[in-house]
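Known limitations

Structure tokens in this collection are predictions and should be treated as such. Users comparing against experimental data should check residue numbering before alignment. To illustrate the layout, the record for GNAT family N-acetyltransferase is reproduced below. The input appears on top and the generated tokens appear beneath it.
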Amino acid sequence: MLKGKLVRLRAYSKDDLEKVLEYINDSEVKKCLTPGIPFPFRKEDEEKWYQNLNPFSEKSYSFAIETLSDGEYIGGCGINNVYWKNSVATVGIFLGKPFWNKGYGTDAMRVLVNFIFNEMNINKVRLDVYSFNKRAIKSYEKVGFKVEGILREEIFREGKYHDIFVMGILRNEWKKINKA
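Generated tokens:
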């Protein structure tokens, strides 16, 4: 388990799946997660995803996020892909709506990024975020991510096109921010 100031990152449990479905199928959460049609997941979809989690993977790692205060499951984060040759990891995160704007997401991302740089020996962490997701962009900037590029009008949501921001942080930038 990886511990931050507010949250702990741990392996998923089958007991988390009910909350995963509740949080991930919330329309406001869903619209920020996938570029495709924001169609709801079924229980069977989540069970299949859970069965396919592989702690020995070389490409992806999923963590459940729980609060330190009471151990409540609040969302998930993970490494979606690792490009070992180039030393780049792509990450993602989601939180249940009741836990937005409380610092949990920023803390979880800090813990994840620290793990990637200090345990996996990766040089760069990157992510994509939709331009309308101002809350997430602000959180990522607090962690130290910078906008590296803009994919213009790349996603269609709620009747109009939006940009996708490609954000990244380098290991040397992380070390400067966290040298205390």
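For this record: The radius of gyration is 16 Å. The domain at 2-125 is CATH 3.40.630.30 (Aminopeptidase). Please report discrepancies through the issue tracker.
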